[in-house]
Amino acid sequence: MSAAEKNNGGLGPGLSLRHRVAIGGGALALLLAATTVLALATSSDTDTSPPQTASVIPTESAPGPSGSSTGPDGPTGPTGAPKTRDPVEFGKAFAARLWSYDTRTDTQTGHLASLHAWLTHEREYADPDSITNNIPDPVLWSRMRDGGQYATAEIGEGHIPASFTAALNADPGRITDVYAYAVTVTGKQSIRWNGSGAGAEARTVTLAVQCRPNQDCALAGVLPNIAP
Questions:
Q1: pTM above 0.85, yes or no
Q2: Mind listing the pLDDT tens digit for each residue in 108-154?
Q3: Per the domain annotation, does 228 fall within a domain?
Q4: How far is residue 16's CA from residue 170's CA, in Å, rounded to a whole number?
Q5: Which of 154, 155, 160, 152 is nearest to 209 (CA)?
Q6: Does some domain include residue 7?
Q7: Per the structure, how many domains does the chain have?
Q8: Residue 39: in which H helix or E strand, if any?
Q9: Domain span holding position 95
């Protein structure tokens, strides 16, 4: 069976700060500029490889792979998300949802809508495109559905990256406009499809999670870089 992966815009090490902000998308770029999350994209020790969405397209001729509160503009608590004020716990929960899908019972648009429901309702700080870029497109989803493909996630750990903490300690006031935190989550995605095929892959993602004081957390977006 062949493996298809969807690569999404990573930031090359030679890009200028202006280009890095532009590539990040309007809403998320504003978020990054308004908080210390931007330091992650320009840190020398940040992984600049693009995020990936794994998908296995089964065929019959090849072997399988191995292996609610309110904010300034209204409520910020996302629909379907856990009620927590801990950015790491929220990030781990979202990563588990991001890496889990079932093409047998869900449509691509339905899966995408369920992920978008985790976004903050403060629209100027929400970046839905950053989620869209991390799931299979409708054509690929259809091929995966033909093979009865589904995936489950096992979360390993989550943490606030050291580069974010250092930037925040250097300038604590920068976070008070948006209250967005960088959270890196690692885990394993297990994939199955028709005919007893199965595979597993390691996964890592860095998220921007908004946690205003005395309010439940919400997602701002998926960062284009992985911060260790």
A1: no
A2: 999 999 999 999 999 989 999 999 999 999 999 999 999 999 999 99
A3: no
A4: 23
A5: 160
A6: yes
A7: 1
A8: helix 38-42
A9: 2-222
